[in-house]
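Figure 2 data, in text form.
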Amino acid sequence: MDNEMTLSFIAISENEGLARMVMTSFIASLDPTIDELGEFKTIVSEAVTNAIIHGYDEDGEGIVTIRAKRNGQTITMTISDEGRGIPNIEQAMEPLYTSKPESERSGMGFTIMESFADHLAVWSEPQKGTAITFTKEFLPVQSNFVLGER
């Protein structure tokens, strides 16, 4: 393992941006492409937002924890909460399903995360919380620069 970190914060919406910024800094040494960076930030945003909105109902009482590991060009990250949990993971992962239709949620969070991650796993238990683990491999930096040429 090359590096790892843990970040914990109160489950309020303004901390979603903090999580995205810190995790983006964590992967900076991999020199991600613009597309890779956008996909990674989207996964982090979706997972953290789910924890805040669905895990804790935006109550500002709970804690969201992110554990990230970098091994070569691969990032493995787990975003977890100790909130209300998901009673039916299979249903929750269906495109367009939302447990909060009154909040105008799109129900596409898991679908988006799955499409951008190389691997996505969800663990949840009602009244104990949820953990979303994903891996994403970043392409190695390739230089087209040759010394002495323009």
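Caption note: DSSP finds four helices and five strands in the chain.
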